[in-house]
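Contributing new records

If you add data, match the layout below exactly. Sequence lines come first and carry their own label; structure lines follow with theirs. Keep one chain per record. Anything else will be rejected by the validation script.
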Amino acid sequence: MKKIIGLVCVVLFLSGCYFNNTEVFLSPEGFHAADSPFTAGDHAISGIANNGTAAVAVSNDGVIAYSPDSGVTWTRVAAENIVDNFIDGIRFNAVTWGGGWFLAAGDEGRAAYSADGIHWQAGVIGPMSPKNIYCVAAGSVAGRTVFAAAGNDGRMAHAEDSPAGPWYMDDVSTFGSADYYAGNVYALAWGEIKGRGMFVAAGDRGKIAFLRDLSGKWYSNGRAGTGETFRSAAYGNDRFIAVGDNGLIKYSLDPLNSTWVTIKDSVFGLRYLNGIAFDPVINRFISYSDDTIVGLSEFGESWNASNFQSRMAGGGANDPEKISAISCTASRIILGGSRGTIAYSN
């Protein structure tokens, strides 16, 4: 079996009723190394998204790869049209799926979109340029498909129906004025609370906000009771969970009323939590830290986690490798690594 360098490996052993009294354990035997097109150049994978079966991964130096089988096999996408539009390339920071489209975005407002994950078109999210885009998301708001992008200095934008645009500048007062450093937005997530679709955005200094209509106004009362920085957010089990620096974990059943609960006794300690996703198949949130710890939780209130750093091939306690992306398909969990490694679960 090909070595997996720098990735935590997770396997899920279920006992009892599938959704009742389910025990979940972590073990390196549950993941397999994919033949990744990113490893040849040590391309750091910055995002993975899927439409249920097919998956797309992007790197911080503009590489896109496609998997038709939930992360088992990967092919580098020929995206010459993207290169032609951006002479000096593009740095992708995030990718999402929604409304029938994959949307990848990165530095200087640059983006690319595809309906099938294979054929891509280049674009610029005008209201974001020349700011860097750190996160993207898609979902339904007020009966319309909405794509959202956010990043540097609290800059935020949205488009309806298609990632091709037009894109509209959103009200950025939640995170501050775009005219001066106001704090970056690192996390976007879409979900439904009481049947109402909405986006949650989170970022620097504990700021958090939500978009509940098509006005482009993000609502918030400021911070979610913390001064730490949020790095990622996800929706599942009727709640949003946002994670970040120094073991920051908060969940909300009602973002409309800015009610966020802090998880104080986390197994992550004071580690930085850089990513979180929800797997509807195993009904668990999955989060990973800035080293090699992966944690699982049904509701975000209690977590179990494991550190396999000392058991990873060629690594040990000083292994510099990191998990840098995660995506949950209808059949597998996919992990991306900081040097282009990809692993998929059974």
